[in-house]
Amino acid sequence: MANNDMSDQLEGWLKDVHKLVPNESEQERITTAGAKKLAENLTETTRNKHYSNHKDEKYGHMADNISYNSNDIDGEHDGSSIVGWTNKYHDMNAMRLNDGTRKIKADHFVDENLADSQDDVFNAMLEEYKKGDDD
After folding, report:
1. Which of 15, 105, 109, 111 has the fewest CB atoms within 10 Å, counting from its CB?
2. Backbone angles phi and psi of 41, in degrees to 5
3. Count of beta carbons in the 10 Å neighbourhood of residue 135
4. What's the distance, Cα to Cα, between the start and end of the chain in Å?
5. CA-to-CA distance for 23 and 112, rounded, in angstroms?
């Protein structure tokens, strides 16, 4: 229940950002701060739960290939920011580990990281928002 409350609170705050900060480049600056924090937390979680000694020459390890961008999923600059893996190979592996398959038990590490990171993301965006007030 607490996660849903926090999720609703974060979503509400994001809507407020769009109202309070009509400038999309300012919105982007704020959401990018949150995306950066989420990417850092996801990298740490992935290293803790799924790091191995496997050396993939082509793709590297999925924990080392998480990034964030200051655009939406379609590449549009609308004030949104995204977090994810830099290639489809890692993205698919993460999805299998998170959601499970017939042979892999789901551990929901991405979902849990998102829920656990909401305070950190909110605080990162709030700090970035406050910086705009100082200018």
Report:
1. 105
2. -65, -40
3. 4
4. 38
5. 32
Closest CA to 34 of 114, 110, 123, 116: 123
Phi, psi of 55 (to 5 degrees): -105, 100
Contacts of 13 (CB under 8 A, 6+ apart): 122, 125
Q: Which of 52, 53, 51, 43 is nearest to 110 (CA)?
A: 43
90 and 59 in contact (C-beta within 8 Å)? yes
Per DSSP, the residues of 67-113 read EEESS-TTS--SS--EEEESSHHHHHHHHHHHH--SSS----HHHHH
List CB contacts of 115: < 8 A, sequence separation 6 or more. 3, 6, 7
pTM: 0.82
Q: Summarize pLDDT for 42-85 with one digit per residue, the tens.
A: 999 999 999 988 788 888 999 999 999 998 888 888 888 899 99
- Token look-up 């007030």 returns 133
